[in-house]
Amino acid sequence: MTLPSLRSSSRRRGPRLNRRRLPAWVWVPALAGAIGVLSACAAAHLKPIPPRGPIPVSAGVSVQASPVPLDPSNPARLEVDGFRYAGGVALTSADTSRLHGLSDLIVYGDGSLVAPSDDGDIFRGKLVLDADGRLVGVSDATLEPLRNPKGEPLQGKGEGDAEGAAQLHDGPLLISFERHHRIWRYAQDQADPKPATMPDVKLEPNEGMEGLAAFGARDRTAYWVGTEPGGLYLCRLDVSCAEVSGLPKPPLGYRLSGLAPGPNGELVILHHSYIPAIGSRIIVTIVRDPNGTKTVAGRLAMGPNSTVDNFEGVSVAARPNGDWRLYLLSDDNFNPKQRTLLLAFDWTPPK
Protein backbone atom coordinates (compact mmCIF):
# COMPACT_ATOMS: atom_id res chain seq x y z
CA MET A 1 0.00 0.00 0.00
CA THR A 2 1.36 3.42 -0.94
CA LEU A 3 0.63 5.94 1.79
CA PRO A 4 -0.26 9.51 0.76
CA SER A 5 2.41 12.15 1.16
CA LEU A 6 1.41 14.79 3.73
CA ARG A 7 3.98 17.22 2.36
CA SER A 8 2.79 17.02 -1.24
CA SER A 9 -0.89 17.41 -0.24
CA SER A 10 -0.10 20.64 1.61
CA ARG A 11 1.19 22.15 -1.65
CA ARG A 12 -1.97 21.81 -3.68
CA ARG A 13 -3.30 25.01 -5.23
CA GLY A 14 -6.45 26.41 -3.52
CA PRO A 15 -7.73 29.22 -1.33
CA ARG A 16 -5.10 30.83 0.85
CA LEU A 17 -5.40 29.76 4.47
CA ASN A 18 -4.74 31.78 7.59
CA ARG A 19 -1.56 29.98 8.72
CA ARG A 20 -1.86 30.71 12.39
CA ARG A 21 0.51 28.72 14.65
CA LEU A 22 -1.61 26.33 16.72
CA PRO A 23 -0.67 25.33 20.26
CA ALA A 24 0.88 21.88 20.74
CA TRP A 25 -2.10 20.64 22.77
CA VAL A 26 -4.15 20.96 19.55
CA TRP A 27 -1.91 19.54 16.84
CA VAL A 28 -0.03 16.75 18.70
CA PRO A 29 -3.15 14.61 19.45
CA ALA A 30 -4.48 15.28 15.94
CA LEU A 31 -1.24 14.16 14.32
CA ALA A 32 -1.07 11.05 16.51
CA GLY A 33 -4.62 10.15 15.54
CA ALA A 34 -3.87 10.57 11.84
CA ILE A 35 -0.79 8.36 12.09
CA GLY A 36 -2.83 5.71 13.91
CA VAL A 37 -5.47 5.70 11.17
CA LEU A 38 -2.85 5.39 8.43
CA SER A 39 -1.07 2.57 10.30
CA ALA A 40 -4.33 0.68 10.75
CA CYS A 41 -5.12 1.04 7.04
CA ALA A 42 -1.67 -0.21 6.08
CA ALA A 43 -1.88 -3.18 8.45
CA ALA A 44 -5.28 -4.12 7.07
CA HIS A 45 -3.77 -4.44 3.59
CA LEU A 46 -0.69 -6.46 4.56
CA LYS A 47 -0.75 -10.02 3.24
CA PRO A 48 0.08 -12.83 5.68
CA ILE A 49 3.63 -14.16 5.41
CA PRO A 50 3.63 -17.76 4.12
CA PRO A 51 4.99 -20.43 6.48
CA ARG A 52 8.72 -20.99 6.25
CA GLY A 53 8.75 -24.73 6.78
CA PRO A 54 7.39 -27.60 4.72
CA ILE A 55 3.70 -28.38 5.22
CA PRO A 56 3.59 -30.85 6.91
CA VAL A 57 7.06 -30.50 8.41
CA SER A 58 9.55 -33.32 7.76
CA ALA A 59 6.97 -35.48 6.02
CA GLY A 60 6.12 -36.69 2.56
CA VAL A 61 5.07 -34.15 -0.03
CA SER A 62 3.22 -34.67 -3.28
CA VAL A 63 5.02 -33.48 -6.40
CA GLN A 64 3.28 -32.42 -9.58
CA ALA A 65 5.24 -32.97 -12.81
CA SER A 66 4.36 -31.12 -16.00
CA PRO A 67 6.05 -32.41 -19.19
CA VAL A 68 8.35 -30.04 -21.05
CA PRO A 69 9.78 -30.40 -24.58
CA LEU A 70 13.46 -30.16 -25.43
CA ASP A 71 12.74 -27.33 -27.85
CA PRO A 72 9.52 -25.35 -27.24
CA SER A 73 9.56 -24.02 -30.81
CA ASN A 74 9.98 -27.53 -32.25
CA PRO A 75 8.51 -30.23 -29.96
CA ALA A 76 9.52 -32.92 -32.46
CA ARG A 77 13.20 -32.23 -31.84
CA LEU A 78 14.64 -35.00 -29.68
CA GLU A 79 18.42 -34.73 -29.97
CA VAL A 80 21.18 -32.22 -29.35
CA ASP A 81 24.93 -32.81 -29.78
CA GLY A 82 24.44 -36.58 -29.83
CA PHE A 83 22.41 -36.58 -26.60
CA ARG A 84 18.93 -38.06 -27.07
CA TYR A 85 16.15 -36.40 -25.09
CA ALA A 86 14.58 -38.93 -22.71
CA GLY A 87 11.88 -36.76 -21.18
CA GLY A 88 11.69 -33.75 -18.93
CA VAL A 89 9.35 -32.25 -16.35
CA ALA A 90 8.76 -29.05 -14.40
CA LEU A 91 8.31 -29.88 -10.72
CA THR A 92 5.95 -28.13 -8.29
CA SER A 93 4.21 -29.05 -5.03
CA ALA A 94 0.90 -27.93 -3.59
CA ASP A 95 1.96 -29.23 -0.16
CA THR A 96 4.84 -26.88 0.58
CA SER A 97 6.23 -23.45 -0.16
CA ARG A 98 9.80 -24.77 0.00
CA LEU A 99 10.23 -27.02 -3.03
CA HIS A 100 12.54 -24.45 -4.59
CA GLY A 101 16.22 -23.62 -4.85
CA LEU A 102 17.41 -27.20 -5.56
CA SER A 103 21.11 -26.78 -6.19
CA ASP A 104 22.56 -30.23 -6.96
CA LEU A 105 21.43 -33.75 -7.81
CA ILE A 106 22.44 -37.33 -7.11
CA VAL A 107 20.55 -40.14 -8.86
CA TYR A 108 21.24 -43.63 -7.54
CA GLY A 109 21.13 -46.92 -9.41
CA ASP A 110 17.66 -47.77 -8.10
CA GLY A 111 16.21 -44.49 -9.42
CA SER A 112 16.09 -42.73 -6.07
CA LEU A 113 17.40 -39.18 -5.91
CA VAL A 114 18.62 -36.60 -3.44
CA ALA A 115 18.89 -32.84 -3.97
CA PRO A 116 19.97 -30.22 -1.41
CA SER A 117 18.49 -26.75 -1.52
CA ASP A 118 20.15 -23.38 -1.06
CA ASP A 119 17.83 -22.65 1.87
CA GLY A 120 18.92 -25.56 4.05
CA ASP A 121 16.59 -28.38 3.00
CA ILE A 122 17.18 -31.78 1.44
CA PHE A 123 14.73 -33.22 -1.10
CA ARG A 124 14.43 -36.95 -1.75
CA GLY A 125 12.30 -38.92 -4.14
CA LYS A 126 12.17 -41.60 -6.81
CA LEU A 127 12.18 -41.12 -10.56
CA VAL A 128 9.06 -42.21 -12.42
CA LEU A 129 9.63 -43.59 -15.92
CA ASP A 130 7.04 -44.60 -18.50
CA ALA A 131 6.93 -47.90 -20.39
CA ASP A 132 9.58 -46.62 -22.80
CA GLY A 133 11.92 -45.58 -19.99
CA ARG A 134 11.30 -41.87 -20.42
CA LEU A 135 11.20 -39.54 -17.43
CA VAL A 136 7.65 -38.51 -16.51
CA GLY A 137 7.73 -37.58 -12.82
CA VAL A 138 8.96 -38.01 -9.25
CA SER A 139 7.24 -40.08 -6.54
CA ASP A 140 7.78 -40.90 -2.84
CA ALA A 141 9.05 -37.38 -2.20
CA THR A 142 10.15 -35.98 1.15
CA LEU A 143 11.49 -32.57 2.11
CA GLU A 144 13.39 -32.18 5.38
CA PRO A 145 15.79 -29.65 6.88
CA LEU A 146 19.51 -30.31 6.90
CA ARG A 147 20.88 -30.28 10.43
CA ASN A 148 23.98 -28.94 12.12
CA PRO A 149 26.24 -30.94 14.48
CA LYS A 150 23.91 -30.07 17.39
CA GLY A 151 20.97 -31.64 15.59
CA GLU A 152 19.32 -28.29 14.93
CA PRO A 153 17.75 -27.44 11.55
CA LEU A 154 19.85 -25.08 9.46
CA GLN A 155 18.25 -21.65 9.19
CA GLY A 156 18.70 -18.94 6.60
CA LYS A 157 21.15 -18.32 3.79
CA GLY A 158 24.10 -17.67 6.08
CA GLU A 159 24.21 -21.27 7.35
CA GLY A 160 21.91 -23.20 5.02
CA ASP A 161 23.07 -22.26 1.51
CA ALA A 162 23.83 -25.81 0.31
CA GLU A 163 25.28 -25.98 -3.20
CA GLY A 164 27.00 -29.30 -3.92
CA ALA A 165 26.42 -32.96 -3.05
CA ALA A 166 28.49 -36.12 -3.47
CA GLN A 167 27.91 -39.69 -2.35
CA LEU A 168 31.23 -41.28 -1.43
CA HIS A 169 31.77 -44.98 -1.98
CA ASP A 170 32.26 -45.68 1.73
CA GLY A 171 28.85 -44.30 2.61
CA PRO A 172 28.89 -40.67 3.73
CA LEU A 173 27.04 -37.94 1.88
CA LEU A 174 29.05 -34.74 1.39
CA ILE A 175 27.28 -31.38 1.24
CA SER A 176 29.08 -28.14 0.40
CA PHE A 177 27.83 -24.75 1.59
CA GLU A 178 28.61 -21.22 0.51
CA ARG A 179 28.50 -17.89 2.38
CA HIS A 180 29.73 -19.78 5.45
CA HIS A 181 32.00 -21.92 3.27
CA ARG A 182 32.40 -25.50 4.45
CA ILE A 183 31.87 -29.15 3.49
CA TRP A 184 29.99 -31.40 5.89
CA ARG A 185 30.03 -35.18 5.88
CA TYR A 186 26.66 -36.71 6.77
CA ALA A 187 26.15 -40.31 7.83
CA GLN A 188 23.21 -42.26 6.48
CA ASP A 189 20.92 -41.04 9.27
CA GLN A 190 21.73 -37.40 8.33
CA ALA A 191 22.65 -36.66 11.96
CA ASP A 192 25.78 -35.20 13.53
CA PRO A 193 27.64 -34.01 10.41
CA LYS A 194 31.44 -33.84 10.56
CA PRO A 195 33.65 -31.36 8.69
CA ALA A 196 35.34 -32.63 5.54
CA THR A 197 38.47 -31.33 3.86
CA MET A 198 37.99 -28.35 1.55
CA PRO A 199 40.34 -26.37 -0.71
CA ASP A 200 42.42 -23.75 1.07
CA VAL A 201 41.44 -20.88 -1.22
CA LYS A 202 39.71 -17.54 -0.75
CA LEU A 203 36.05 -17.70 -1.77
CA GLU A 204 33.60 -14.86 -2.26
CA PRO A 205 30.40 -15.08 -0.17
CA ASN A 206 28.17 -16.07 -3.09
CA GLU A 207 30.81 -17.81 -5.23
CA GLY A 208 31.65 -20.94 -3.34
CA MET A 209 32.00 -24.67 -3.86
CA GLU A 210 29.23 -25.24 -6.39
CA GLY A 211 30.24 -28.75 -7.41
CA LEU A 212 31.09 -31.99 -5.59
CA ALA A 213 31.66 -35.43 -7.10
CA ALA A 214 33.04 -38.75 -5.86
CA PHE A 215 36.41 -39.54 -7.46
CA GLY A 216 35.88 -43.20 -8.22
CA ALA A 217 36.16 -46.71 -6.86
CA ARG A 218 39.97 -46.61 -7.00
CA ASP A 219 40.04 -44.18 -4.05
CA ARG A 220 36.94 -44.33 -1.90
CA THR A 221 37.90 -41.33 0.24
CA ALA A 222 38.63 -38.96 -2.66
CA TYR A 223 36.28 -36.42 -4.19
CA TRP A 224 36.26 -33.52 -6.61
CA VAL A 225 35.47 -29.97 -5.55
CA GLY A 226 34.60 -27.29 -8.10
CA THR A 227 34.42 -23.59 -7.27
CA GLU A 228 32.16 -21.19 -9.13
CA PRO A 229 35.02 -19.33 -10.86
CA GLY A 230 36.10 -22.70 -12.32
CA GLY A 231 38.82 -24.09 -10.06
CA LEU A 232 38.84 -27.89 -9.75
CA TYR A 233 40.41 -29.65 -6.78
CA LEU A 234 40.97 -33.29 -5.86
CA CYS A 235 40.45 -33.76 -2.12
CA ARG A 236 40.70 -36.65 0.32
CA LEU A 237 38.85 -37.00 3.59
CA ASP A 238 40.89 -35.74 6.52
CA VAL A 239 43.97 -35.22 4.32
CA SER A 240 44.25 -32.32 1.87
CA CYS A 241 43.15 -30.86 -1.47
CA ALA A 242 45.24 -30.19 -4.56
CA GLU A 243 44.22 -28.14 -7.58
CA VAL A 244 44.14 -30.08 -10.85
CA SER A 245 45.09 -28.08 -13.94
CA GLY A 246 44.25 -28.81 -17.55
CA LEU A 247 40.54 -29.48 -17.06
CA PRO A 248 37.89 -27.48 -18.97
CA LYS A 249 37.40 -23.97 -17.60
CA PRO A 250 34.20 -21.92 -17.84
CA PRO A 251 34.04 -20.03 -21.16
CA LEU A 252 33.65 -16.26 -21.06
CA GLY A 253 30.38 -15.38 -19.33
CA TYR A 254 29.94 -18.86 -17.81
CA ARG A 255 30.51 -20.22 -14.30
CA LEU A 256 30.93 -23.69 -12.88
CA SER A 257 27.62 -24.83 -11.41
CA GLY A 258 27.85 -28.59 -10.94
CA LEU A 259 29.94 -31.78 -11.03
CA ALA A 260 29.12 -35.48 -11.24
CA PRO A 261 31.09 -38.73 -11.45
CA GLY A 262 30.79 -40.99 -14.48
CA PRO A 263 30.39 -44.79 -14.23
CA ASN A 264 34.08 -45.39 -14.97
CA GLY A 265 35.75 -42.54 -13.13
CA GLU A 266 34.86 -39.82 -15.63
CA LEU A 267 34.22 -36.27 -14.44
CA VAL A 268 31.11 -34.48 -15.70
CA ILE A 269 31.40 -30.69 -15.53
CA LEU A 270 28.38 -28.37 -15.80
CA HIS A 271 28.91 -24.72 -16.76
CA HIS A 272 26.06 -22.20 -16.82
CA SER A 273 25.66 -18.67 -18.14
CA TYR A 274 22.92 -16.12 -17.73
CA ILE A 275 23.05 -12.82 -19.60
CA PRO A 276 19.73 -10.89 -19.67
CA ALA A 277 20.08 -9.98 -23.35
CA ILE A 278 20.75 -13.63 -24.27
CA GLY A 279 19.13 -15.81 -21.62
CA SER A 280 20.35 -19.01 -19.98
CA ARG A 281 22.92 -21.29 -21.59
CA ILE A 282 24.67 -24.43 -20.37
CA ILE A 283 27.60 -26.62 -21.39
CA VAL A 284 28.05 -30.16 -20.08
CA THR A 285 31.53 -31.61 -20.65
CA ILE A 286 32.43 -35.26 -20.03
CA VAL A 287 36.13 -35.84 -19.29
CA ARG A 288 37.76 -39.26 -19.24
CA ASP A 289 40.71 -39.86 -16.90
CA PRO A 290 40.30 -36.41 -15.33
CA ASN A 291 43.43 -36.75 -13.22
CA GLY A 292 45.50 -38.07 -16.12
CA THR A 293 45.01 -37.65 -19.87
CA LYS A 294 41.92 -35.44 -19.40
CA THR A 295 40.28 -36.54 -22.66
CA VAL A 296 36.98 -34.84 -23.57
CA ALA A 297 34.60 -37.64 -24.58
CA GLY A 298 31.36 -35.67 -24.99
CA ARG A 299 29.92 -32.20 -24.91
CA LEU A 300 26.32 -30.99 -24.66
CA ALA A 301 25.52 -27.30 -25.24
CA MET A 302 22.04 -25.81 -24.88
CA GLY A 303 20.85 -22.24 -25.27
CA PRO A 304 17.69 -20.13 -25.12
CA ASN A 305 16.11 -22.02 -28.04
CA SER A 306 15.95 -25.08 -25.76
CA THR A 307 14.24 -25.70 -22.43
CA VAL A 308 16.96 -24.16 -20.27
CA ASP A 309 16.99 -22.51 -16.86
CA ASN A 310 19.47 -22.11 -14.02
CA PHE A 311 20.80 -25.68 -14.16
CA GLU A 312 22.98 -26.45 -11.14
CA GLY A 313 22.45 -30.18 -10.64
CA VAL A 314 23.90 -32.92 -12.85
CA SER A 315 23.98 -36.68 -12.36
CA VAL A 316 24.75 -39.75 -14.44
CA ALA A 317 23.49 -43.34 -14.28
CA ALA A 318 24.73 -46.28 -16.35
CA ARG A 319 22.21 -48.05 -18.58
CA PRO A 320 22.16 -51.86 -19.05
CA ASN A 321 23.28 -51.48 -22.69
CA GLY A 322 26.32 -49.38 -21.76
CA ASP A 323 24.71 -46.03 -22.54
CA TRP A 324 24.53 -43.22 -20.02
CA ARG A 325 21.42 -41.55 -18.65
CA LEU A 326 22.28 -37.90 -17.92
CA TYR A 327 20.03 -35.87 -15.61
CA LEU A 328 19.95 -32.09 -15.22
CA LEU A 329 18.17 -30.18 -12.42
CA SER A 330 17.57 -26.42 -12.28
CA ASP A 331 17.56 -24.08 -9.29
CA ASP A 332 14.60 -21.68 -9.61
CA ASN A 333 16.02 -19.26 -7.00
CA PHE A 334 12.56 -19.14 -5.33
CA ASN A 335 11.64 -16.92 -8.30
CA PRO A 336 8.12 -17.37 -9.73
CA LYS A 337 9.47 -16.50 -13.19
CA GLN A 338 11.78 -19.54 -13.11
CA ARG A 339 11.10 -23.27 -12.90
CA THR A 340 12.44 -26.38 -11.21
CA LEU A 341 13.25 -28.43 -14.30
CA LEU A 342 14.39 -32.05 -14.33
CA LEU A 343 15.57 -33.24 -17.76
CA ALA A 344 16.90 -36.61 -18.94
CA PHE A 345 19.18 -37.47 -21.87
CA ASP A 346 20.61 -40.74 -23.18
CA TRP A 347 24.16 -40.77 -24.54
CA THR A 348 26.29 -43.49 -26.12
CA PRO A 349 29.94 -43.06 -25.05
CA PRO A 350 32.49 -43.29 -27.86
CA LYS A 351 34.76 -46.32 -27.88
TrEMBL record:
Protein name per UniProt: Phytase-like domain-containing protein
Signal peptide: none
Domain Phytase-like: start-end pairs: 98-334
InterPro entries from the UniProt entry: Phytase-like_dom, UCP031900
Region of interest: Disordered: 143-164
Pfam family, one: Phytase-like
